């Protein structure tokens, strides 16, 4: 089963994302900021990373940059969760190495659809 | 699939309230002399941003819109395009208040008044638009059309047209026909993107035929594993428009591909080129970097949530109750220690001693679970002082000492309001106006100190001010006016100060908005006594006042004096007990037959026969050599008669309310080591009952 790393400093968001994805059959591991996520990622491989942008200790963009330096994460899809729909932020994400973004607020359906599409192509699920 | 998000709402509310506390604390650090550092400003931004995100997700658009405005302003601040000033800090503080209130309303499942935030919103707009007549920078908060949601749109018109066209023999069931050239940049895989996914997505939008353009594929020897050298020509018949296609399929990769989309449906229909390649996936599949180690799918590895866990207080109470039972059982066993034949049972004795130890430690640990640092309550005071200071135009400094001292959660909550009242009093009545302070050579800035510390088995909370102190003359005068004391009565300083706890007592010349109505101190004392605590005042005219609140560490156990009345055993809480004396008849003065006083040093203490109050047959009615338990209620001393004194011990409080019903004069019960039940005396209500009874007999004796 595909393993998804979800990173957000809001515990209610983490719960919601985790619950939604688990219900669709994915395995989910959560982290509360970039630092925690990176530390986990150094010894574990996720098939997909979903991360918030604004977080303490290490923000989303820094996390993406760091993940891309890890060999197993060179090509892993990383999606940014952002409330900012400005082109600038999206491009900032892309130049940090993100795959794409999901704009908050999203409803659970959207999240599942996006995740499925991204993972389907890669893992053939 | 219909996922109910309500279950996460409570978490969102709690989280938001915590964020608001953090925001408020940071804001209070700002004053004219010290600006906030970048990390603090970022924290403010993140707080509002987080609440905005969560509220939008859970459908609270009123909150989302408001926090969006706050966030917009804070974004400008963190980008150094605006600076925080006192006025905007005030606006932010007001926002915290509004948000707290609104969340509380939502938690109570009521409908908040979202329009009430508009004035504050306006203030933000002023800050945002100041300087250049800048257009509001806020980003419109419209819900983004979901990027990947399937659209069920069917254009009826074109459907009709297509049916008509079909009859004409032309295959034209879609509105649009796009000719798409798609060439991902070589490094596209590095962003985790997959052209295959994009092509799959396109396929879902209509009818697609796809053509791999082989000319882009390099020689084998030049081939790089992780670069993409493919390009496709795609013909897509679809009812979607070009923008839809861009958004649905190419949104994420617009910056890393060459892409042209041309609508050729208006041209003469040309037969689509024969697909040369399987439309599903591009032929040379991009090679996945070989993974050396098997992917550990164990989610429990490493990452965990924060180092704390939320536990409901109900669960804690159950646990504490069970520990209480354990202690009772253990003390029962302990009683047998002395009756056990020491020869063969040394081990048992040792076991019991260790059990005693374990139980006490366990009890202490469990009690601590319910303890919170007093800072959770003390933290509301900087804000309160700041606002009071502005309202009444006095310069006030607040000092907090011992904020990490821990106290039982329930006690802390109940202490909160009395503390507020006491601090307000200090500020309003204690501290003098600036000019008076200057006249008297005092620092024009008044200081209020809140401190908390452990002492013995109690926790002490003190409120000290360096103000005018209590005016004994005024208090005595007022008390005489109200008939609380007689003109000639001589009272100690402490007794005088205690008078202010009488209901309706206030020497404030003017009742201000802040305090002075005279209902406060009485309620404060009642609240503290209901926590098995006591309150004392020390004061010096011209120097200041200290109010000292003493509370037990916990409400679950009690230090008490075991007494007997007849065949019944009672527990007298030590905190209420001032003194115990053995009664000597020559010190008894009878005012009336049933109303007697005991002369102790300079006091005349009313004697209350507990056996009478409780309707118990006493061992004897002669008071000689019985014991007088001297307690203080309402600033006066009373003596409660007991036949015998037994041990002083710590008892576990069992609630009568839960197990039986509320009984006047009794605040709970405990199970003693021998299995018998001892009622715990509620000294204040006992005394009040007794006083009423006596008053009744006095009145009746006049008829």
Q: Overview of this structure, please?
A:
Helices cover 46% and strands 19% of the residues of chain A. By secondary structure, chain A is α/β, with parallel strands linked by helices. A 5-stranded parallel beta sheet of chain A has the order 2-1-3-4-5, with helices on both faces. In chain A, strand 1, helix 1 and strand 2 (27-31) form a beta-alpha-beta unit. Chain B is an alpha+beta fold and 703 residues long. Chain B has 20 helices and 22 strands. Chain B starts with 5 loop residues before the first helix and ends with a helix. At the A-B interface, helix 1, strand 2, helix 2, strand 5 and helix 5 of A face helix 1, helix 2 and helix 7 of B.
The structure class of chain B reads alpha+beta
> Which two chains touch over the largest interface?
A-B, 67 and 58 residues
Assign the structural class of chain A, choosing from mainly alpha, mainly beta, alpha/beta, alpha+beta, or little secondary structure.
alpha/beta
The rounded distance between the terminal residues' Cα atoms of chain A is 9 Å
Largest sheet of chain B, if any?
Answer: 6 strands, mixed
Q: Give helix % range of chain A.
A: 40-55%
Work out the number of β strands of chain B.
22
């Amino acid at each position: 089963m595909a393993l998804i790393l979800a990173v957000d400093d809001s515990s209610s968001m983490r719960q919601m994302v985790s619950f939604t994805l688990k219900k669709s059959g994915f395995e989910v591991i959560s982290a509360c900021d970039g630092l925690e996520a990176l530390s986990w990622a150094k010894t574990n491989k996720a098939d997909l990373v979903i991360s918030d942008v604004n977080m303490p200790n290490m923000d989303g963009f820094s996390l993406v940059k760091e993940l891309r330096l890890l060999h197993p994460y060179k090509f892993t899809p990383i999606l940014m969760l952002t409330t900012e729909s400005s082109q600038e932020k999206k491009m900032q994400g892309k130049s940090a190495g993100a795959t794409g973004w999901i704009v908050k607020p999203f409803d659970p359906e959207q999240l599942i659809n996006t995740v499925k599409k991204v993972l389907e192509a890669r893992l053939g699920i | 699939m219909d996922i109910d998000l309500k279950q996460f709402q409570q978490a969102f509310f709690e989280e938001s309230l915590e964020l608001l506390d953090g925001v408020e604390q940071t804001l209070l650090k700002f004053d004219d002399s010290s600006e906030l550092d970048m990390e603090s400003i970022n924290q403010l931004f993140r707080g509002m941003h987080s609440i905005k995100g969560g509220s939008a997700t859970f459908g609270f658009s009123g909150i989302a819109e408001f926090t969006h405005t706050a966030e917009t302003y804070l974004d400008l601040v963190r980008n150094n395009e605006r600076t925080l000033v006192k006025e905007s800090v005030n606006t932010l503080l007001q926002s915290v208040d509004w948000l707290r209130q609104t969340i509380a309303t939502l938690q109570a499942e009521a409908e908040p008044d979202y329009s009430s935030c508009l004035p504050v919103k306006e203030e933000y707009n002023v800050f945002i638009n100041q300087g250049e007549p800048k257009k509001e920078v806020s980003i419109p908060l419209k819900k983004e059309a979901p990027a990947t949601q399937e659209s069920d749109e069917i254009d009826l018109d074109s459907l009709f047209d297509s049916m008509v066209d079909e009859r004409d023999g032309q295959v034209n069931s879609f509105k649009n026909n796009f000719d798409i050239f798609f060439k991902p940049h070589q490094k596209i895989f590095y962003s985790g993107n997959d052209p295959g996914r994009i092509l799959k997505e396109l396929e879902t939008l209509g009818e697609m035929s796809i053509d791999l353009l082989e000319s882009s594929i390099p020689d084998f020897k030049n081939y790089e594993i992780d670069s993409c050298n493919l390009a496709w020509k795609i013909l897509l018949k679809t009812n979607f428009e070009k923008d839809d296609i861009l958004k649905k399929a190419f949104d994420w990769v617009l910056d890393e591909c060459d892409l042209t989309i041309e609508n050729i449906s208006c041209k003469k229909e040309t037969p689509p080129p024969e697909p040369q390649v399987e439309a599903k996936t591009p032929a040379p599949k991009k090679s996945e970097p070989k993974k050396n180690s098997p992917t550990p799918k164990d989610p429990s590895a490493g990452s965990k949530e924060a180092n704390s866990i939320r536990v409901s207080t109900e669960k804690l109470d159950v646990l504490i109750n069970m520990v209480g039972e354990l202690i009772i059982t253990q003390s029962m066993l302990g009683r047998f220690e002395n009756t056990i034949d020491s020869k063969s049972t040394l081990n048992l004795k040792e076991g019991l001693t260790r059990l005693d130890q374990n139980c006490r430690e366990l009890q202490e640990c469990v009690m601590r679970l319910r303890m919170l640092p007093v800072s959770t309550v003390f933290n509301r005071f900087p804000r309160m002082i700041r606002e009071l200071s502005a309202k009444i135009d006095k310069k006030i400094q607040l000092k907090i000492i011992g904020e990490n001292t821990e106290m039982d959660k329930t006690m802390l909550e109940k202490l909160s309001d009395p503390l507020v009242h006491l601090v307000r009093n200090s500020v309003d009545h204690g501290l003098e106006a600036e000019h008076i302070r200057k006249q008297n050579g005092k620092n024009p800035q008044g200081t209020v100190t809140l401190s908390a510390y452990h002492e013995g088995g109690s926790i002490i909370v003190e409120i000290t001010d360096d103000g005018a102190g209590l005016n004994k003359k005024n208090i005595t005068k007022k008390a005489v006016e109200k008939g609380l004391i007689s003109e000639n009565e001589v009272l100690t300083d402490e007794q005088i100060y205690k008078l202010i706890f009488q209901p309706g007592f206030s020497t404030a010349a003017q009742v201000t908005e802040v305090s002075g109505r005279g209902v406060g101190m009485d309620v404060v004392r009642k609240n503290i006594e209901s926590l098995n605590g006591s309150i004392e005042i020390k004061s010096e005219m011209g120097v200041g006042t200290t109010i000292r609140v003493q509370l037990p560490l916990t409400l679950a156990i009690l230090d008490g004096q075991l007494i007997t009345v007849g065949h019944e055993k009672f527990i007298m809480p030590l905190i209420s007990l001032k003194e115990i004396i053995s009664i000597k008849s020559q010190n008894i003065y009878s005012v009336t037959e049933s109303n007697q006083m005991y002369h102790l040093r300079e006091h005349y203490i009313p004697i209350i026969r507990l056996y009478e109050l409780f309707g118990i047959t006493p061992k004897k009615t002669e008071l000689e050599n019985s014991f007088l338990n001297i307690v203080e209620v309402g600033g006066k001393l009373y003596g409660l008669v007991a036949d015998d004194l037994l041990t002083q011990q710590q008892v576990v409080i069992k609630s009568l309310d839960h197990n039986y019903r509320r009984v006047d004069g009794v605040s709970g019960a405990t199970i003693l080591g021998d299995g018998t039940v001892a009622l715990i005396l509620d000294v204040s209500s006992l005394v009040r009952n007794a006083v009423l009874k006596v008053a009744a007999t006095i009145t009746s004796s006049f008829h």
